[in-house]
Amino acid sequence: MIQKCPQCGAVLPADDSCQHRFDQCMALEFENPTVFGAVHHLTVACYMLQHNGYSRDVWLEARNMVAQFVHDGVMPAEMRRRGRSRLDSGHRTWSMSKGAKLAEFAAIVWSRTIADIRLDNPEIYCHDVTQWAMSILSDTEWLPK
Ligand SMILES: [Zn+2]
After folding, report:
1. Distance 82 CA to ligand 1 centre (A)
2. From the CA of 50, how far away is ligand 1's center (Å)?
3. What is the pLDDT of residues 19-76, one digit of tens each?
4. 49-61: per-residue pLDDT in tens?
5. Residue 96 in contact with residue 90, Cβ under 8 Å?
6. How many angstroms is it from 5 CA to the middle of ligand 1?
7. Which 8-state DSSP code applies to residue 96?
8. Are 108 and 139 in contact (CB under 8 A)?
9. Where are the beta strands (DSSP E) in the chain?
10. CB 102 within 8 A of CB 92
11. From ligand 1's centre to the CA of 92, what distance in Å?
């Protein structure tokens, strides 16, 4: 038996789910913060973007943040210095999911999902997460900045 995620379209066995995959990623990242955790800022944003976990404004802001990480090579510490701390998981003092969601979400076709992330070793993992982030940017190029 297989099932398709209603949000990102990932095809997974019936006893697996995107949430379960995400929990596995988080466990690896927290156990190995310097290796697997090197892409933590991307993993969380990618998962939330693909599962429509943010309100519209935060969704667009999070995608812009991913673009700065991936295309401009901005590091998470630098991003925090720029005052984008409301997307930093340590500073969630206001709701990031409250309010109108991205109306265009259902029209996005995702070319990669969390089901494509291999957990074999840190090199493969970080590579796959980075590819995932890049695919999210190109899959949503038509949306407003
Ligand atoms: Zn999913």
Report:
1. 31
2. 7
3. 999 999 999 999 999 999 999 999 999 999 999 999 999 999 999 999 999 998 888 8
4. 999 999 999 999 9
5. no
6. 5
7. S
8. yes
9. 2-4, 11-13
10. no
11. 23
